[in-house]
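Posting for a labmate who doesn't have an account.
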Amino acid sequence: MPRLALDTLALDARLGHPRGSSDVAGEWASTSTELPRVSLIDLPRECARRGIDTLELRAAQLPRVDDVYLTDFRATCAASDVELFSLAIDGVADLADLTGLAHADAATRYEAVGRVKPWIARTSVLQAPYVRFTPPTATDDASTDRVKESISELAEHARRHEVKLLLRTTSPDALLASLDQDVRKDVAVVVELDGRRDPQLRADASRATLLATWRSKMESLVANAAALLLPADLSTIVADAADAAAKPSNEQKVLDVFRQAMKDKRFNGPVILTTAGDPPDEWKRVLDLRDALRDNLVLREAWTHR
């Protein structure tokens, strides 16, 4: 069913983490002493109270990665009736550069694949159905074959752990078409709707073709994605618009196009809010977008602290 999910990175400062840090083994430094804090393991309860019952957990935010902590986090999700949809491993220190999955040297590819495999096992301990990461972009036929080989090996490893790969891409059709049929059943794609990251959308953001471009793009992406990544701050979508005063209006128009595409294509996965406003307005931005999408998503009833 279509539902709202939260990428835990959206509340990074609220968790006491410095944005952009990726040292999974280290201690997180506080960014502010003024924010009401929540520990990561308590976050499922806080989300449930606000009507958000699906989470994507960022591996880089985990204070520990042992089975005891992961099992405790899984138990907190279950007790809060919160679905843990995926473990996102982008940004983890030892996975900072996944271009090794496409490297011409077989030993380098083997090493890169080996760094991802433990996170697949941890996803299994969490009992999340998906492990998410961004594969390298292939630049030619040879690198396409190398990425395919790496993904195929990881998909086989994920199958043994009863987990699926969730690959972040802006070209789901091309990525899936590059994989063998027997691999595709263990792979899904998640699409990020963000004008900052999509060159075509960024280029069109200052022209009258913005909404037409988004309508065509969204319909294609929504039809092929297992999940959608949506910036909680929709101004990022129209960040390059020539008329700054029109941004609030453009935000609403883009959101309307997005909602219609979800309806027309019968999208049935989670919409994952990825980034939020600066502290202390993170929760407010998340909840505002939750309310804006209420008619399109299955949401639990909740009382809300803003």
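Reply:
Got it, the structure tokens are right above this. The chain has two domains: 1-13+37-57+193-296, 89-191.
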